[in-house]
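Our collaborator T.R. sent over the components below with a one-line note: 'Predict the complex.' Nothing else. No constraints on interfaces, no templates requested, no preferences about which chain binds where. So this is a plain run: every listed entity goes in together, and whatever single assembly comes back becomes the starting point for the next discussion.
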Amino acid sequence: MTPLDGRVALVTGASRGIGGATAEALRRAGARVVRVARSLSPAEGFVDLPADLTDPRQVEALADRVRRELGSPDIVVSNAGGFLLRPLEETTVADFDAQVDLNLRTAFTLARAFLPILRAAGQGCYVTIGSVADHVGFPENAAYAASKYGLRGLHETLLAEYQGTGVRLTLVSPGATDTAIWNSVDPDHREGLPRRADMLRPADVADAVLFVATRPPHVLIDWLRLGPA
Ligand SMILES: NC(=O)c1ccc[n+]([C@@H]2O[C@H](COP(=O)([O-])OP(=O)(O)OC[C@H]3O[C@@H](n4cnc5c(N)ncnc54)[C@H](OP(=O)(O)O)[C@@H]3O)[C@@H](O)[C@H]2O)c1
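Returned assembly:
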């Protein structure tokens, strides 16, 4: 018997990185895992529902399909996102809008589509992947940090709004994690950035999500921060 036997989990941004590792950890723990991303390589043991989450109609269609075919998910991990490291004076309005769209607006539309389903079921674990940049300012991080601080505001508001419904919301805020999100930055060759070998591994963040998802229903973890030692 594994701890999540019979549970349904949905993970966005599950094609690689933190979302990929989280989907795998939840699957290994016994959950039936729905993977969501734009591009998903075939893998055994998952239900794959490709979607571009920046399109609210696709998010609504996704939630509708999951509810009809699998019922209310026990676990939702809102993880899909992107990263921009760019000085303010080189960050265009379009860059800013794209970060807010991908990291914040998609989290809003996902929450708006899925939280009513969880509320109606009277239970569920809803995990948002924030970042160390949702509570610490770093140079060249204006657009990313604005999106992630906004995400923390969204999380804290929904935490209060859904209190007492049986739906438990958690913000997981990882520090630097060695994934493809860093590829365009090449941190090993730039001053002031963590080396890839010193970063968290995607599996470390997945373990944190698994810990949250396996607490009994009377335990709420509202915020879990983790980073490289
Ligand atoms: N890596 C870090 O250092 C770090 C630290 C703190 C927080 N985080 C956060 O962790 C989350 C995952 O990051 P990661 O490092 O694992 O990045 P990653 O390896 O680049 O993965 C990003 C995921 O998001 C998906 N995605 C991107 N745009 C999408 C869209 N429009 N619709 C649906 N899915 C989309 C990607 O899939 P497709 O391209 O196939 O759509 C991919 O699965 C992000 O929210 C990030 O901000 C990362």
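Summary for T.R.: The radius of gyration is 17 Å.
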